[in-house]
Structure formats: C-alpha cells, structure tokens
Description:
single chain, globular, binds zinc ion, 4-stranded mixed beta sheet
Amino acid sequence: MKKIIIGMLTFALLHGCTSNVKKTADPVKKYPAFDVQNMDTTVKPGDDFYTYTNGAWLKNNPIPADKNSRSSFDELIEKNRHDIREIIEEAAGAKDVQVGSDTAKIGTFYNTGMDTVSIEQQGVSLLKIFFDKIDSIQSIADVQSVGAFFQTYQINPFFFLFSNQDSKNSTSVIAQCYQGGIGLPDRDYYFINDESTKKIREKYLIHLTKMFELLKEEPSLAEKNAKTIMKMETQLAKASFTNIENQDPQKTYNKVTIEGLNKLAPYINWQSYFTKVGYPGLSEVNIYQPSFIKELNSMMKTVPVEDWKTFLRWQLINSTAAYLSKDFVDQNFDFYNKTLSGQEKMEPRWKLILDLTSNSLGESIGRLYVKKYFPPVAKQKMTDLVMNLKKSLKQRIENLTWMGPQTKLEALAKLDKMGVKVGYPDKWRDYSGLAISHQSHVLNVLNSQAFEFRYSMDKVGKPVDPTEWGMTPQTVNAYYNPNRNEIVFPAGILQPPFFNLDADDAINYGAIGMAIGHEMTHGFDNMGRQFDKDGNLRDWWTKEDSKAFDAHAAMLIGQYSKYEVLDSTFVNGKHTLGENIADLGGATVAYNAYKLSLEGHEAIKPIDGFTNFQRFFLSYGQVWKNNMRDEELRKRVKTDEHSPSKVRINGVVYNMPEFYAAFPDIKQGDKLFRTAEQRPVIW
Length: 683
Ligand SMILES: [Zn+2]
C-alpha cells in the first residue's frame, strides 16, 4: 500500500523492509542495557564516534539478502512482526467467529492474502471493472471521471486528495490536494544526470514496457506506451515542487474556493470531479502545489485521450501489482526493491501479508497488540520521562542567549500547550464499514484503501477529533504534528533498545529520551517554528530572533552538506535541516533532562568502565547502528528528510559541549573535533 505522510514530522522514515533476526522475546532473558561487544575501541571517539560505538556490530551483522538494511529499527520491527503474527494467526485460525467482527476481518484479510493458489488463478481478472472503465473512455471529461473513480480507491492518478486541518485556522478541517502522478520516488529522478540516476531511468523504461507486456500488449505497443508514460510523468515532474519547496508551509498553503480552482485549472471540471469522488459539497481546498495543478490542467488540453487511457492503465497496474499474481509481483519487486533499493530477494510472503493486514486493520490489530504486549508500567514511566523532558526544554529556552524575551514567552507558551500521546489512543476506530471477503486479495486491499479515503474525507467540515492518532500503536516510530502541536509515541517504539524498563537511566535518556526531545524540538525547527501554540501558521518571532535562528541554522546546513555518504553523494543540508535541528535539540534537551534527574542523588558508579554520562552518548549512538545497501542509501539521500544514520550521530555529538565533557580525552586535532565557535546552539 503506497502511503504518503504529509505534515507529520517523524522520528525516522517509515519503511516496510526489515532485518532478519530470530525472535528475541524470550520472557526470561532481559535485553542488555548496552552491549560493549558492539563497539570498536580501536577507533578514537574523537575521530568517528558512530564507528567507535557500533564498529563491531557493523562488521558482524551483514544485510540479509531479502532486506535493504539492518538496523535497530529493523530488528525491532522484525520482533514486532513476530508479536503481531501471534495475534493475526489466532484470528486467522479462530473458529466460530462472528461474521463481520474485527477478528473475522483480520483472519479473512490475512488468509486471503496467503491463498496464492486463488491469486494465481485470478491474475488480473478481478480488476476487470477498472479496466472496463478505462476502455469506455471517449473524451477528456471521461478521463477525469475515471480518474475520480480511481481516486476513491486511492489509486491516485493525478494527485492525492485527503483532509487535514487548515494551517491558518487549525480548528477547521479542509480538503487538501497534493501533487502525484509520477512512478519514480521523487521529481528529481527525472532530471538528475549522474550515472546512477540515468541508469534508473533506463531501467524504469524497461520496467514500464514489461508491465504493459504483462497486460498482454504486443512488445512494440508496450514499448511505445512505456515512452508515453515516461513523457507524461516527466511533464508532471517538471511542474512538481522540489522536496525543499514542499517543506515550506507558507508556499504550500494555497486555499482556494471552487471558483478559484476553476480559474486556476479550467480544463478540469472540479465540480464534477468532487461529485464523482463522493464529496459534491466541497467548497474549498488547499492546493499544495499550484504549478503542478496548472500543468495537469494544460495536459488535459494537449495530451490525446488515447495517451490518458494508457496513463490510467499504468496507474492502475502500478498501484495493484504487489497484490496480483506472481508475474506482476516479481516484476514490481524487480524495479521498486531490486533496482531502487538493492534488495536481492523478496521477503517470505507471510511477512508482507502481515504488514499489509497490520496497515489495513491498523487500530483493530493495535487494540489487541497493546493488550498483549504493552504493560501499563511502561506507559507511566514514559509519561514521567516526557514531563522531565518538557521541564528540560523549558529551562533551555529560558537560558537561551540568542533569543529575546518576547519570543521566549511565545515559545514557552507553545511548549506548555504541547500535547502528549503515549502508547495507544483512548478511543478506537470503528471498522464496521470496511468490507473484507474471501473472494479476492487485491479487492480487499482496494476496499481497505477506499475505506481510508472516506475516513479521511468524511472529516472535512467537522470538528477536529482530539483523540485521533496518525500512527497505529504497533508502529516503530514517533511524530510531531504541527497543526495539533502534539507529540505522539506509539507502543511499538516503547521497547528496547529505545525504551528499556530494565536499563539504567543514562541508557533510556540517551535513547527514548533523545526521541522525545527530537519530537518536541520539531515544534521549534525551521518548519515547526512557523506554527504557534494552537497549531496555526502565524509568525510569532521578532525580526532579530528570526535572524539569529537562521544564522545558527545556516551553520548546520553548511556542516551537513559536507558529509559525503557515498562516492560524490552528499547529504542535502537544506532538505534535512528540520530533522538535524531536531536531532541536535533532542540530544541536548535529553542530556539536560538526565542531568536534572540526578540532582540530589549520589554520584553513579561507572558500568563496564564507562561513566553514566558516557553511557548516555553510547546509548544514543547504538540506537542508530545501521548497515544499508548503497542503492537504498542513494535513494534515501534523494528522498528522505532524515540524514543517514552515521550522520545522525556524528553530525550531532561534535556540536555538543556536553559530549566533550563526557569524553575529556577528545582534543583538537581529532578528526571530527569542533571548536566552540564552530558549534551552533539552537535549542
Ligand atoms: Zn523527526
């Protein structure tokens, strides 16, 4: 299921591919607080702290053939899959379940996805209703009608359509329209002319051709159609915002009425489009990228109807290939996993179907998941930690030397009002409107996508539901939502190595403490700082303070842009700025919180030869251990707003005076040493 997350600032990139570890949930065996065996102490901590912390682990943990990386995240996601498998298999094997109940839906969704015999027999036949729609197209008006029909199943041929809070009036929910239509991971892929990107474009063209051939087209026609798709997508990509433009909340705020839309893009019949997607009453929409909609409009005028039919066929097959017979699944894997990420072979089917079930029936599985695996004591401990982190950031803001008193008042009010969600939602979603049947796997996926589309769009014009979550409880991640001014930590991430009930405080502050600080800092990064305490896009900064913030941020951009992660592939310091600010702020605020928690206590004895302050940094470093394939790394540098793992450690610690205090042997002359003047202080 292709999903995009817009407006949520996450802890790490959400990804489905995980590392191959054995189940570690031996109830007697405790997860080690920190494993010194993972370190490479032949590396000096002042030369490369990441490798000093993780060197032995990196050497001893190669990437399995069916993964594109191996990391702490991957290991925990893999452990979670085994936990979730118990829930799903219980549901899948349950007798006498009530028809239409959540348990029945979980079981049916999973069993139908695992029934490869039926899936092979069906081929693409169950998509007939969609193909018939395309075949019946005779005019541009028909192209738009069929596009709208597809959109209701979240096959998004032209753009994404969903609801979110109005950024300038956060108590109201409006429709949002976001650029789409391209099959490569980012618009830049269509234009960058380095060898690896050129090769990807060549292989994409071959992939397109093969997919059309699988739809029983003659090779020459398939090749012609592939070229048509490439040409149309390149046109759309050209008008698309870059990932840096997409991070600008002012530039992407363009609320228009239907009349405004008709003026912006008169060759699209908007009233008819919204009626066809089931929402005839939509009166206003935020258009994230007006240039994109303008180009789409002019293509409606210039591109022949036959080409649009080809385009819709590609959109349909590209969004469903992973759920069809083996020939489609394999070809889809060959391009999207092998070529783009370097993954050698596919994961076992049960894992893929499990992920899909867990996405499609997210909170229904989440409810069972937290009951079985999330102890109440974890929720309490986490809530206490968050409160300590809040106190710490408050103190940091009060003591900032670059910020004036007026801006500080607003910043403190924002921090004070910042909401916190831990573990799982207080109110669970209702899946009674979701139809799941034994008939067809691909139709179950499409029905689930249609259900999600309506769930999102039904919120337009209704009051904001404060209990709602943007991630499922079983997700190994966390986020800050600027429109709600809240930080959210699903139960899935509240496990070792991020959160370890058996570990000493230094370890937890360095891991989950840093994650909490990271999400809190997102409220004050280059994007988050443009929103106020109520989640409204409003400038609450004095001119001088804005300027001072930008000057420190510019230092960070300069530093990160110098990190070469592969041959002549550098981190994009601008694109990753918000995440890098959150990492630096997160580690700093977590460290300060840890120090505050020690007040009035006796000094803590070293463990394994490391002081508690050293263990804070070692724990932080260990969380980000990661072996990643070059192809995947190249893709991430182009698309992910998070810096690569190694940079998330080395980019941060050498900016922190606390780090030099914890490791007093680090001296000028060490490879990554920075003088006080070279270290930005933001939060
Ligand atoms: Zn983040």
